[in-house]
Structure prediction request, 288 residues.
Amino acid sequence: MTHSSSVAKPASQTRRNLVVFLVLAALTTVELGLAASGASGLRTGLFLALSLAKATLVALFFMHLKDDSKVYGLTFLAPVLLVLVMSLLVVAA
Amino acid sequence: MTTTTIPHGESFQAGEALGLDHRKLGMWLFLATEVMLFGGLLTAFLHTKLRQPGLEFTAESLLLVGLNTFVLVTSSFMVAQALDAARRDLKGRLRLYLLTTGALGVVFLAGQAYEFWLLAHEGLSLTGSLFGSAFFTLTGTHGLHVLIGVVWALAILLAALRNRGLSSNRVEIFGLYWHFVDIVWLVLFTVIYLV
Prediction:
């Protein structure tokens, strides 16, 4: 019977982390470019969509909600939805 | 072949009842309460901003806050890398990433302090107007969370330097907190400065 003293290490997540980071940086650059250009039109909606995209990326990949139990995600999502409703009510009032 | 069943009490004590890590679940529940805290403050700020627009942020201010956003996003990347290093038992890298995270947190706080100083010179204060009150309460509360995160990162770094048995779970719990603080800033950046 042979024993192996080395335990297999988990695969590196560096590539995935780097891609997510670069996308986040790119989206932030786009936001700043839009803000500097002073472009109007769908500005508010675009900023909110970009912000939502960035937050989702962080939650899914850096906080591992994509791979973890759905219970964690639902625990987090429930108050987020409540806050969204609350904010929409304030804006609509 | 024998089948071993683990009594519920034992799995609970092992911190993994229902297939969930208790410490992680505890942190997610804490973050849920934090969502409500920041949600309340953000809604109050929105209410104020829509009815009493306070000030137009200058290009300089926007650039500063934009750089600060890059700093915080980079720190989130560092924390993700720190967890990766902890899971792969790469102690040197873990220390480096934690140190960088703490340093970036300090840079963010310095940037925020400078921004507060600039705004104070433009006449915005905590008690001078409703907008100022909502703005400083919201961003100040976030800054306090970053400060707590910096202290937490340094505490974990200290444990890593002393070569104590540092579990990747401990780094992961800290990471959840730090990434949450990052997410909050991404939202604040948009709502306060861009929209």
Remarks:
- The CA atoms of residues 17 and 75 of chain A lie 24 Å apart.
- The interface with chain B takes residues 9-10, 12-14, 17-18, 20-21, 24-25, 28, 31-32, 34-36, 43-44, 47-48, 50-51, 54-55, 58-59, 61-63, 68-69, 71-72, 75-76, 78-80, 82-83, 86-87, 90-91 of chain A (CB under 8 Å).
- Residues 69-93 of chain A form one domain.
- The radius of gyration of chain A is 20 Å.
